[in-house]
């Protein structure tokens, strides 16, 4: 009996899905899975940046508050560090937010088209069944 390693599991999983689904459905499913994973990871990354930005800003504010008033050099140094963190966070927000939004939009568009494709295939099957049934009724007459 062979050991079931993760790579063997994924190879078997891909093989089973590739055999069970036609190539177009496989591609659509793969696009949905990849876009969902990418969108989710980008939103989690953006949330992590927001949390870290808040924590670092709070820590710098606490350090400034704990310093004596006479120590202007350290206060200026901590303020410069806080401004640097704020600028970096703003840049990351400006970069990641539109990217996450675009990937999420792609996911919903792909999901919608996959759903409409399933509905149209079902309607085609229903129409084929109905036309076959009506032909059989006409042949019986």
From TrEMBL:
The chain crosses the membrane at residues 32-54. Keywords: Membrane, Transmembrane, Transmembrane helix. It comes from the Bacteria. Residues 119-141 are annotated as: Disordered. This is Uncharacterized protein. It comes from Amazonocrinis nigriterrae CENA67.
């Amino acid at each position: 009996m062979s050991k079931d390693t993760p790579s063997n599991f994924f190879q078997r999983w891909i093989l089973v899905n590739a055999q069970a689904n036609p190539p177009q459905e496989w591609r659509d499913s793969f696009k949905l899975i990849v876009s969902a994973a990418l969108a989710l990871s980008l939103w989690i990354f953006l949330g992590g940046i927001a949390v870290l930005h808040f924590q670092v800003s709070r820590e710098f504010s606490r350090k400034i508050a704990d310093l004596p008033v006479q120590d202007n050099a350290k206060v200026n140094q901590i303020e410069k560090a806080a401004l640097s963190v704020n600028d970096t966070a703003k840049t990351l927000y400006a970069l990641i937010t539109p990217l996450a939004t675009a990937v999420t939009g792609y996911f919903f568009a792909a999901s919608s088209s996959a759903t409409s494709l399933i509905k149209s295939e079902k309607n085609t099957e229903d129409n084929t069944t109905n036309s076959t049934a009506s032909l059989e009724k006409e042949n019986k007459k």
